[in-house]
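Async update (no meeting this week)

Hi team, since we skipped the sync, here's where things stand on the single-chain job. The sequence we agreed to prioritize is pasted below, unchanged from the tracker. I ran it this morning and attached the output directly underneath so nobody has to dig for it. Comments welcome in thread, and please keep replies under the output.
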Amino acid sequence: MASPPALAEAQRWLQHAVLAQHPPSQPVEDMLTASSRLGAAQRLGVYRRGYRLRLLQAMRGLHPGLRALLGPELFDDFALDYLDACPSGSYTLQRLDERFAGHLAAGRPDREQPVRLRETWIDVMIDLARYERVFAEVYDGPGTEGTGIPTWTGPLESAPELLGRRVLLAPCLRVLRLCAPVHTYLAAVRRGRRPEPPAPRPVWLAVSRRDYVVTATEIASDSYQFLAALLGGAAVRVAAVEAGMDTADAVNRLRGWAANGWARGLARAQPFAVPASA
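Output:
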């Protein structure tokens, strides 16, 4: 009679048997016992089905807007296909859908077509999935609650060093470029309404959180470019140039964003290094 497997080996086997897309090829009876009512393979099947259902329920909770847009059955088909292709690898289900939008984009049937010939409704679907992922990140991630609201004072001429500095932005701030106002669609769904699908139009969005409430604010395209450059680590002057903005306008917008809690202050200036040969 073979000796029973070590605990660690049994745990690894059970994890793989539950998480894998297909049941294990090894006879289940080698690892599990039967009960008075169910065989070993049937008992494993209970765990496999329960785990898969739990993941599907998590996807439904993470994407109420997309589920409303597609309908429950079609959404479940997309979600289950994603779960098969991208198994969960995180300790938390809040990160379960991290690759969902990318999976939808990679599997779109018109992906080989020129952008102008692609189906617009697929773009809306993917952007809604992207926005819901960002919404979850902002909702669960670090914020600025309890830190107060910074102020920007003084005219630009009195603080020229600001232009060469990086801005410390709120850790919950994200910017998105979308093909439709999917944020208003999701908001209506969350209020229990049944809105019409959002009509396509360019949207530039800043997503943040204030007092534990996620906010989605439409911004101008140059503000989007400016914020995206700042989020990428560019100094104020460089970010303004990339956005095609004059520096006075850039600083004024920063003051307004500070009132929103988006801009928190300036990064510490780097000291001037004197060459050793000087």
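Quick observations from my side:
The CA atoms of residues 219 and 256 lie 12 Å apart.
The chain has a mean pLDDT of 86.
Reply here if anything looks off.
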